[in-house]
Amino acid sequence: MSFRTTADHVEDVSPGRGALPPRAWYAGSDARSLSLNGSWRFRLTPTADAEDDSFAEPGHDTGDWAEVTVPGHWVLQGHGSPVYTNHLYPFPVDPPHVPTENPTGDHVRHFDLPEDWPADQEATIRFDGVESCAKVWLNGTLLGDFKGSRLPHEFAVGHLLKPRGNVLAVRVHQWSAGSYLEDQDQWWLPGIFRDVTLLHRPPGAVGDFFVHASYDHVTGEGTLRVDSEVAGRVTVPELGLDLATGESATIPVEPWTAETPRLYDGVLATEGERVPLRIGFRTVVLADGLIKVNGQAVLFKGVNRHEWHPERGRALDPATMREDVLLMKRHNLNAVRTSHYPPHPAFLDLCDELGLWVIDECDLETHGFTEQGWRDNPVDDDRWTPALLDRAARMVERDKNHPSVVLWSLGNEAGTGRGLTAMAEWIRGRDPERLVHYEGDIDCRDTDVYSRMYAFHEEVERIGRGLDGGTHKRRRLPFILCEYAHAMGNGPGGLADYQELFERYDRLQGGFVWEWIDHGIRHPELGFAYGGDFGEELHDGNFVCDGLLFPDRTPSPGLVEYKKVIEPVRFRGDGADGTVTLVNRYDFADLSELSLEWAYQVDGESVGSGTLPVPPLAPGASADVKLPEPPADGRSGEACWTVRAVLAEDTAWAERGHEVAWVQLPVTERVKPAAVAGAAPVPDGRTIRLGPGVFDARTGALLRIGGVEVDAPRLDVWRAPTDNDDGAEWQTDIRYGLLWRKFGLHRMRHRLDAVETGADALTVRTRVAPAAWEFGLHTEYRWTADGDRLRLTVSVTPDGNWTVPLPRLGIRFALPAADAVSWFGGGPGEAYPDTGSASRLGRWQATVDALQTPYVRPQENGARADVRWVELGGLRIEGEPEFWFSARRWTTEQLDSARHLSDLTPGDRVWVNLDHGQHGIGSQSCGPGPLPRYFLRAEPAEFSFVFSQSTAP
């Protein structure tokens, strides 16, 4: 005798049984519906067959069961733990088999029908998302089973409903054959995580329907036809249209674009139901080797978006979805790739309403098969093709009426195979009005666009110039980076360099930054948890925290940088000649929704402001705008114009005055710090006095400036490596973060060679070098002073064979106390050599704590760039040339050793870095490192700082 150790449907490669054919999704109609979201009874068992099906029977006692919230994931509600892997399957790869240890959640929902629910009529129950495999009963009758976690499944239930005492039972398995198709670089989170809805289906109710709304950019006319499974009529009052389903009409319209998301309200009415329509007229074609919408090539300024909430995982509410779209619009994004599955359908409604181009991606990734050379990959196994086609159909049928969706994507990182070809062919047959995308199709056999991930700048330029080779078909296709600029930790660097290429070469139609939000899970001790924090035996650490938003949806410096880099209005000019040139970088919109504001600043303070006329610029056009005469303030100093393009009126996505773009144009140069000399060093026992400075006579170490104690400034080259410094283990280029540690740059020794007093200077000579290696840095500290100021000039001369750039080059010291910080320089946020586009010159104030950037995994952060002077802890520090500064309540070494923000404990001192140079950031956590021009090479350098006591309170 033998027994099965798992339920047959779990390891069946088919998509399931019993579900109705997929159809178009709509938010509501005049037909009744009942949400079954809320509190469900829940029982967790360790295997798929640990319990029989009796729990689905009416009358089964669930009184001692736990409760979970639906939508939700049981592992985020105290039942089991989440698991994170990037691409490795967290179970043995033996398709379609899954482990015997297969957490299984039995869910039960008791419900009554509303008193006015129509009797004896059809109804369906719709599940919008269940991970990863579900079996469903209503009132003890099996409805069916299904896979396809991020896709809708609907079951006919009208014949089973009772006025009172209905029992809906759902058995959900964490692992199934479907899991092999859902290896999507995210937390594995089982549960019923999207809405469950009971839908009344009256006689003659709307079935499937397809809104075809094209636009002819030559005539300015749109053509509308609505094909409907159930005959009816379509009305669009604003256009005066009243059509039978299947009938076409052509009429002048305003087109839909992501920049001008014009929607017309309509109604599809059948005998039994009225469904509201939101119709956007637009045409998507591949023409002249470019993706064109309404006759115009588009430039995607996009982002990849996983669905995420730090407490609820992928169970998102409408407010969170709207917040995402509003943040994207306010940061100048115009496109989103729904990586790597169709999102909640309400998100696409928001994209239609507020305006975003969408690449809608199928719920498919088999990345883990790369570990075995793609052997047994389901997409090249005919047994799995029905499941692949089911997933494609459920995406397309659900989302086909959204004007925002301009490309269908077959999936992500699933290798190649016959199944993908079948998907592409089916999609083209069903919807020839959109294009097909899939990055893994390197020869573009099945796709309409050449798509890549993380191509280096140099290769992207070759592609833009048409020098990339490949098949004849591929060379004639447009190019996009479906993923680039990996936003993990501090970064991504190099965004401006990518954008310059996109705008220079027509073939390059933009890209999608990876990704939107850090998938940190809120944790009572750790702040936000990542892979490994739940005891997973296999995980990929904080690789799950690689977004432009922190887990709580606070924009990171990377998003602020991206907003600046992709701003749709560009400025050129020379502030000294009083003229600024405006360039309209929109693809469709003019500048009528914007106004221009100017400010004139001297040494970072505004001395005058006003408005400027906005020329009526068409997309791509430019014009000169005359600036006013500089205000007659009488002050001398470093002067510049700041010109801002802001919203002239409230819009659906931001209020009047919201800043869209800006530029600063220098007028006069900075006045360098005055020479500091004249005072002579004065020996005083064990100390040496020089102006306001007191030094240790034996070591030459600075002890005090006036009444402020200082912990000996000395050369510092180490920074807590960023995720991008360390890079990814699969990267083929040099990972400098690892080499820095190998060569001991985190443990430099400081050898004192000489302390020399002269007529007007104290000079300290040292050699700074790591143990075990012969190379080092000869460093000279030359101190001079007048009565109130102390000047330090640092001269650095490398010796030996330096084969790596430096992480940073500057000085570090500690102050006994500091809180308020003010500075004149770049701000308000952090900036590094290849992430500084959004840093603007001004006078800024913050606290030491506010200077920190809370990356989920602590690392180098918080440096302010182009600083002229900074005041903190009773000191004023001026630099020549401009410098970076950072200040924190822990050492770099403590920052380096921390794994979560909760590991950082403020000490009794504030550590200050004044840096002459910083190495670039890049995006090598999954992409290229910094471009060579952003390297901080070990070469001779000299820089100075002038210290004095601050008069600030």
**Average pLDDT reading:** 96
Question: Which structural class should the secondary elements be placed in?
Answer: mainly beta
Distance from N terminus to C terminus (CA atoms, Å) equals 86 Å
How many helices in DSSP terms? 11
Strand content: 35-45%
* Stretches with pLDDT under 50, minimum 5 residues: 1-5
Helix content: 10-25%
Report the principal-axis shape.
globular
How many β-strands, per DSSP? 59
Cα-atom radius of gyration: 31 Å
Query: Main β-sheet, in a few words?
Result: 12 strands, antiparallel
What would you say this structure looks like, in words?
- This protein is mainly β.
- It has eleven helices and 59 strands.
- Strands 48, 49, 50, 51, 52, 53, 54, 55, 56, 57, 58 and 59 form a twelve-stranded antiparallel β-sheet that branches. The protein has an eight-stranded parallel β-sheet with strand order 30-29-28-27-26-33-32-31. It has a seven-stranded antiparallel β-sheet with strand order 1-10-9-12-6-3-4, with no helix packed on it.
- The model is unreliable at 1-5 (pLDDT under 50).
